[in-house]
SDR family oxidoreductase (Caenimonas koreensis DSM 17982), 260 residues
Amino acid sequence: MSYSIDLSGRVAFVTGASSGLGAQFARTLSRAGAAVVLASRRVEKLKDLRARIEAEGGDAHVLELDVTSIDSIRAAVAHAETEVGSIDILVNNSGVSTTQRIQDVTEEDYDFIFDTNVKGAFFVAQEVGKRMLARARGAAPGTYTGGRIINIASMAGLKVLPQIGAYAMSKAAVVQMTKAMALEWGRFGINVNAICPGYIDTEINHHHWQTEQGQKLVQMLPRKRVGSPEDLDALIVLLASSQSHFINGAVIAADDGFGV
Ligand SMILES: NC(=O)c1ccc[n+]([C@@H]2O[C@H](COP(=O)([O-])OP(=O)(O)OC[C@H]3O[C@@H](n4cnc5c(N)ncnc54)[C@H](OP(=O)(O)O)[C@@H]3O)[C@@H](O)[C@H]2O)c1
């Protein structure tokens, strides 16, 4: 006997699917049976991913999305629902980071991080959430199966680390946003949870692991290793599935024990 999770018939909307964690989340949800909408600014990268997913027999769609623009968010979500179907699963993953001491953070750095990680994530979740709410209330057509919103926060949202103070502040906001949405939307069958990954080797930090400072950081980690995007596969599938109906407002660290 084996345990399996099947997402067939579900539509998953993944922001920041052009690289790193988002690309892997999309591939994994597709392998679990979901139709996936790949959304971000670098459309050529999304098309490459769509080709890889289709080669595996999956159903993938590409949409241009800039989460710093509310118009772009509204257009992309509307387009996804018209072209692919009601969004059942949102992976709210787009994010950016900068590295500098607190005293060196400029207004430009601050806006760059907060416009994407906080304002962008909020309005993407709000736009998708509004549609899930409408379906839950029976006001919109479609068979409602419950919504799943998975916000990608960070271990830095729970534990402050040097030189990424503004990023840590932005991810702490994502943690509280997750709880606020879970509280208001839970009774409509919409589960909102956050994953707080530890260090995972992706475009956002790949260059860092080659530097002396990066190597020193790895030595400080409990198991002296950095993760790879596949390390979150099981968690994303669980949180996207109906089997996670009793998990709402959870902030789940997947950081190899760094936060303890
Ligand atoms: N890697 C880690 O160690 C780690 C740890 C904790 C949390 N995280 C979080 O995980 C998420 C994914 O990061 P990653 O490591 O996979 O980094 P990544 O490879 O740099 O991916 C970031 C993604 O965000 C998208 N993005 C950035 N600005 C955007 C915008 N304005 N509109 C739409 N999409 C935008 C990018 O797509 P386009 O450039 O195509 O728009 C890209 O696909 C982020 O929220 C990050 O903070 C990562």
The longest strand covers residues 190-197.
